[in-house]
Amino acid sequence: MGACLILAPVVIAAWPAFSAAVVAAASSLGYQVASEAAKSGHKAATGAPAVVNLEIPRSEVVTGKLGRDQRISVSREGITVVFSRDARGVASLCVTGQGHAEEELRALGEQLSQAVVQEYVHQKLKDEMRARGFVVVEEETTAERAIHMKVRHWEG
Amino acid sequence: MPQREFEITIGADGSVEVHVKGYKGKSCSEAVKLFEQIAGEIRSEQKTSEFYEPEEQVQFRIDQRH
Q1: Which of B4, B19, B34 sits opposite A4 (nearest CB)?
Q2: Residue B34 burial by CB count (10 A; 0-12/13-18/19+): exposed, middle or buried?
Q3: pTM
Q4: Is residue A125 within 8 angstroms of chain B, CB to CB?
Q5: pLDDT in tens, A81-119
Q6: Residue contact B8–A151, C-beta within 8 A
Q7: What are the structural domain ranges in chain B?
Q8: Which domains does chain A have, with CATH numbers?
Q9: Chain-chain contact of A3 with B48 (C-beta, under 8 angstroms)
């Protein structure tokens, strides 16, 4: 081999690509899409549920004027996660859940956030490699939820 | 036919590890740049022996006929 690289992912996505990654990642973790609409807002349940706000590091969600307030909401077992872009364009998520500790919500939010980044990077790498004439010859997801793939190109 | 290959592992946290195979010298650096453009910031890079091998060159021999 010629080199071995380790990269920290950067997410620069238009809203449709970002929301597609959210849906795929959320589904893989057992969440259901609650809503996807501009200015859908987030309704807090009664009894002041715990709320945790997180952001996806090194992310930028590119959007036009019309998509500025877009959000996507997913839920599972009383926990709701709302993804949106903040004023700086950074992808952020708000995790709420009645009867759940803040640490638990933070851990769930981070797990989902990482799954979204993984899904986004996976799709982008596949698309870019195919566009350059590479063929995916192997692909598998390990027990640790890592995605391993081998892409190949024959010269000449 | 020369074969070029990438072995890519995307961790559960989204981090990306790439093993570049079949690229030598300058072409390997270009492959590294490509991944930087697609996937993100390079945290570490380790060049292997293949990197230092000379790039393949095609030589033509022209025989003159009299």
Answers
A1: B19
A2: middle
A3: 0.83
A4: yes
A5: 999 988 888 999 999 998 899 999 999 999 999 999 999
A6: yes
A7: 5-52
A8: 11-115 (3.30.310)
A9: yes
